[in-house]
Amino acid sequence: MESKTWQKWALIGIALSLFFIVLLLPLFTVFYYALEQGFRLFFEALTNEEALAAIWLTIKVALIVLPINVFIGVVMAWTIAYFDFKGKSFLTALLDLPFSISPVVVGLMFLLIFGMDGLFGTWLSEHNIRFMFATPSIVIVTLFVTFPLIAKSLIPTLSTQGNSEEQAALILGASTWQIFWKVTLPKMKWALIYGIILSNARAMGEFGAVSVVSGHIRGLTNTIPLFVEISYNEYQFIAAFACASLLALIAVGTLGLQNIINLIQRKKLEKSLQRTAQQ
To answer: I want to staple 213 with a disulfide (CB 3.0 to 4.6 A). Which of 93, 137, 221, 258 is the partner?
Structure first.
């Protein structure tokens, strides 16, 4: 018995040590170096012209990508969870494609399609449409790497709950929009919020694909992760760590919101089980 207790605490100690070294220590280090020379220099680094441009571009890309992701995610989740059709397994497998391909390769793929020597590069150039090394290219690669997140958050919820309520509403004469807004959306709202949070965090932190298609134009196409890299390479450590700490705060906030949503869902499930038991 004593031997098992010793092994248990040894494993717990190893797990906590690895957790501290791999996760917590780097996180604390970023905040330490960002604030090492005081809050004044920290805020100056965040409010200089290039940093503000990178922050605004990151927010703008996220605001463009998020509604598209919500629409695609809801449609794909609804289709996969509620309908049986040929190719359903293939479509479901394709949702994992953006996770399987390196973001750098994703950027290269779109560069080969929309770049000057790409499939549509000549046509875009002839019509004076700037796609690569501009905001549109950043938006499309960010969309590629983030669009499965909402769908994969919704599919388990919709599949588990089934569509019996939707069928009952249809029999009672409800329209498609009424079924969606009054039946389906309330069922999946927490899973949808969870997916939105994940998608937004991923969009704001994307580096590899954006690095390939952005062109690294100062004040125009540098997002926060790209600005961090450039600042660090130019020995502007305060600016680099300040913006890195901003991304870290977004990550921590995302984790906190995820835990809150999980707690709310758990409490709702417990209440539902209690009501069922009482009946």
So the answer is: 137
